[in-house]
Amino acid sequence: MGLKALCGLLLMVLAGCAAAPPLNPGTPPASSILTQANQPFHRGVNVLGYDPYWTDTAKRRFQWRHFAEIRKGGFDFVRVVLQAFKHMDANNRLDPAWLAKLDEVVREAQKAGLGIILDEHDFNPCSEDLHVCSAKLTAFWQQVAPRYANHPRTVAFELLNEPHDKLNGESWNRLFAEQLALVRQTNPNRIVVVGPTHWNSLNDLPLLKLPPDPNLLVTFHYYDPFHFTHQGATWAGEDVKKLKGVTWGSDQDRAALSSDFDKVAAWSDAHNRPILLGEFGAYDNSGTPLDLRVAYTAAVRAEAERHGFDWSYWQFDGDFIVWDMKTQRWIEPIHKALIP
Q1: 22 domain-assigned
Q2: For residue 236, which of 93, 134, 230, 307 is within the disulfide window of CB 3.0 to 4.6 Å?
Q3: The domain spanning residue 131 has which CATH number?
Q4: Is 277 inside any structural domain?
Q5: pLDDT per residue over 272-302, tens digit each?
Q6: Among candidates 100, 14, 91, 92, which has minimal Cα distance to 53?
């Protein structure tokens, strides 16, 4: 090829590069990323968040046989709710006894054939003090991520539940990127769950800045309308705590649910990311009639599946429950709303 022809070809290549649109770093090529079809978490339930197992095994409610019940009941994974900060010493080292208990949880869930999402759930202390949060969250994943580096793909890490307040906006994007980079040092291909701010609100999905990481599963939580799902809950604020008799199920209610999930689906399609509805449900100790809670639970689950989202219900026992520890049985109407 002559010099003039070579120069002309080079100019054409450079012009083509200049004209090409920039790659959105949060949208990896479709061929390389985790998809709804190839990720292993489909129908799940949250477990062990407030069980005495972590502090006094003798008082535990959750037994290993419950993992088998969960699998037999139609679920394929558990989201294990971890509040690890209180099990750290002054140097942020995790208590070896607590880590041994976590190992046992992972082992027993796997024996029952369940996938596992390890969810670091210290969202309130994290959202109150960013310095403390960064130090403790970093220490947590420095200790936990290498510990499970050789486990199968059915074990996933959720870096932090429901960031809010001081972790809204860019502060969460920065902290998330730091924690993800740390995890990737020992778990380059591990599925990592991340959600938006304002308690994993779907409205904050556009604010979430994702790196070009092919193994991110994006989560959101859904408790709308809050005045229905949390009426009577003592932690939900004075106005909601005093509510009772709020109903749900009108055509307008169902249209709002469908519209909300349409927004999530549009975001998912635009960014080529799979979606996990990580929490949903209606509070069971509010006096709200069971049939209304069942209707709401079934509708949210059905809308999630219609939109192609996988999900995990909040939660196995404690509150919003699907399993009755006193009778050692499923609360059948809620269970059937989840697993028809």
Answers
A1: no
A2: 230
A3: 3.20.20.80
A4: yes
A5: 999 999 999 999 987 899 999 999 999 999 9
A6: 100
